[in-house]
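Sequence, please.
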């Protein structure tokens, strides 16, 4: 038994070099983990969205711990692209959903336009 909860990371960038370095990082992962990634082009503005899908494990399983390690490494990779002024060529979030409910776990996006919540 275990708790069924899912974690995923979604990142969007306009920067082709960042997207290619991310692809290179993904290619270094074990094959089973590579297939959890999708890179999707946008219709306009030459953006690409990289999705790291859930691994399907339950909390407490060994593979869940491995998945968390890879999510942490991927999150660190995304943060490594930050510019010196703290801005980033990426917008990204990690979300959790399932038996724990739903939540944005971490990310780099801030509301730049008001104090109002984006979504309630």
């Amino acid at each position: 038994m275990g708790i069924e909860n899912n974690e995923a990371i979604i990142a969007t960038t306009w920067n082709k070099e960042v997207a290619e370095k991310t692809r290179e990082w993904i290619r270094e992962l074990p094959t089973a983990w590579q297939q959890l990634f999708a890179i999707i082009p946008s219709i306009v503005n030459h953006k690409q969205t990289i999705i790291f899908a859930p691994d399907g494990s339950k909390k407490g399983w060994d593979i869940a711990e491995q998945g968390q390690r890879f999510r942490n490494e991927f999150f660190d990779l995304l943060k490594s692209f930050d510019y010196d002024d703290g801005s980033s060529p990426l917008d990204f979030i990690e979300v959790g959903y399932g038996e724990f409910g739903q939540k944005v776990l971490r990310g780099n996006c801030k509301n730049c336009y008001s104090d109002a919540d984006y979504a309630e």
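The helical segments are 16-27, 31-34, 62-80.
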